[in-house]
Write the structure tokens for this entry.
Amino acid sequence: MKPRFAGRFGLADAVTVTNAAVGFVAVIAATIDVELAARLVLFGAIADALDGIIARARGSSEAGEHLDSLADVASFGVAPATLVAITTIDAGAAFPDPMFLLGIAVPAVYVAMGVTRLGLYSAYDVESEETKGVQTTLAATMIAAAVLAGYSDPIVLVGLTTVLAALMVSRVTYPDLHAQDAAIMGVVQAVAIVHTGYWGRVFAFALLFLAGSYLVFGPWFYWRDCLDIGAVGSGNGPDDV
């Protein structure tokens, strides 16, 4: 007997659901090696952009947008939140220390805000070339890049996660990335994933710098009408950044 999705899902949908599995693996990896988990989160971000490219080129199923939101919850919500929580615990924080409580509570709020943001995006922004609130993909990328760049102090990560959780449900408007800019960020992500040691940290810092620059300046200085070559954001579903 064939599964229900046979004949209904396309290649873009297959990439999307695979990304959800990568998110689960990243959660498990976080309990063993947080840097490995961070690399998996970045890999998921590349896959998220890839499914959008495939969807625009070959189309996707009617379920594509819903699948993308669900996959994003795993890869860019639960996975980076787990990474932050595990980092806090590994640093020696134990219940009922305030740092331990923050290390669990803040990631939990981050997941909740990520789910809220994805729901709002699907309901109101999916056909637009801009969106309100920081994209979950960008937020997860910044957390993962911070870890790989050496900023894995629990205070730093918890503080960053707090800011990102708030910005995901803010009214700040973020334009979709131009395709060429997303490609540049994807290349930097790929190098940060495969390299370890000095160069790995350099490219992770570069990725953190690029993502942080868009986070801070994107709503005011990055305009859709300045270059009309297409954007990453109108593909298989939410947050194809």
About this structure: The chain is about 70% helix and 5% strand. Residues 53 and 59 are 9 Å apart (CA to CA).
